[in-house]
Amino acid sequence: QGAIPHIIKNTNDEFYNNIVKLLKETAEICYDAVNEIKCITCPHKPEGSFFMMVKLDVSQLPDICDDVDFCSKLAKEESVILLPGKSLGMGNWLRITFASEPPTLKQGLERVKSFCRRHQSQAN
Prior knowledge:
Blueprint: H1 4-10, H2 13-34, E1 40-41, E2 51-56, H3 67-78, E3 83-84, E4 93-97, H4 102-121
Antiparallel strand pairs: 1-2, 2-4, 3-4
Helix pairs in contact: 2-4
Pfam families: Aminotran_1_2
Protein name: Aminotransferase class I/classII large domain-containing protein
Domain Aminotransferase class I/classII large: 12-111
């Protein structure tokens, strides 16, 4: 911890600007992708963070009982890890972190989308 003041003082402003630019880009990617998934809604576009909270509509997923079940099955089937909102006291919400490189984030979100489509189609 003693090194933090030195690191902050000696880190180039360009580094911080690049991080902010990357987080804005990945927030946009995440928000747009979530809006394409029928069973997930994002009430607010993220600003000033590296994650977003999204509402999960389990009524559209007949074989999913809650956010914990969703996250567990998603991890097993798609190797994508999301935090169930229940762990934060917010049942049937999900926390999606977008602090990653855009190609990796896009691939993960495509897997979430595919997972949701597959589980929604089981209702038909």
